[in-house]
Amino acid sequence: MAEAILRQGFAERGVDGHRVRSAGTGAWDGASASEGAYLVALEHGLDISDHAATLLTKEIVAEMDIILTMARHHRTRVEELGGRGKTFVLGEYAGLSGPEAEVSDPFGSDIEVYRATFAEIRSLCDRALERLQQAKANED
Predict the structure, then answer these.
(1) How far is CA 60 from the centre of its chain?
(2) CB 85: neighbour CB atoms within 10 A?
(3) What angle do CA 26, 32, 41 make, to 5 degrees?
(4) pLDDT digits (tens, 9 = 90+) for 17-60
(5) Distance (Å, rounded) from C-alpha 98 to C-alpha 71?
(6) Could you tell me how far CA 52 lies from the centroid of its own chain?
(7) What's the predicted TM-score (pTM) here?
(8) End-to-end CA distance of the chain, in Å?
(9) CATH number of residue 81's parent domain
(10) Is the pLDDT of residue 140 over 80?
């Protein structure tokens, strides 16, 4: 869901030139999005029917300028793969701290949990996109 939300956020802001890619620290390569994620994304006009999970690798980490994770244990794994200094927990990057900065995985939960997780990720992505835009403006 986060990949689709970020793509939509960039598009809504008219921002080009950013590549958004999803990869998991424990993903089952090739697995489709869960039914809950698919249905909630559709409710928000996002089609993730072609999503195929990708296991995070050193090569993917090396290609990225910034990596946003859902939880601290994900950040730790990304850093082990060479992402130190460019990896952030999404919530922390969006200005939160403590347990509120982490997004729980809704996998296996009911649709209401997926809806709540979607709303949480969207809010955090909006804040992260604002930070990215400010950083870009400061560079120019």
Answers:
(1) 15
(2) 8
(3) 105
(4) 889 999 999 889 999 999 999 999 999 999 999 999 999 999 99
(5) 11
(6) 15
(7) 0.93
(8) 31
(9) 3.40.50.2300
(10) no
The residue segments making up the domain with residue 112 are 2-139
Q: For the residues of the chain, what is the DSSP string, one character each?
A: -HHHHHHHHHHHTT--S------BSS--TTPPPPHHHHHHHHHTT---TT----B--HHHHHH-S-EEESSHHHHHHHIIIIITTSEEEHHHHTT--GGGG-----TTS-HHHHHHHHHHHHHHHHHHHHHHHHHHHHH-
- Alpha-carbon torsion angle 96, 100, 106, 107, nearest 10: 80
CA–CA distances in Å: residue 118 to residues 43, 61, 103: 10, 25, 10
Q: What is the rounded distance in angstroms from the CA atom of residue 18 to the CA atom of residue 41? A: 21
Sign of CA dihedral 21, 104, 69, 45: positive
Query: What's the chain's length in residues?
Result: 140
Beta bridge partners of 68: 88
Instruction: Name residue, tokens 């690798």.
Output: 57
Q: From the CB of residue 103, how many other CB atoms can be counted at a distance below 10 Å? A: 19
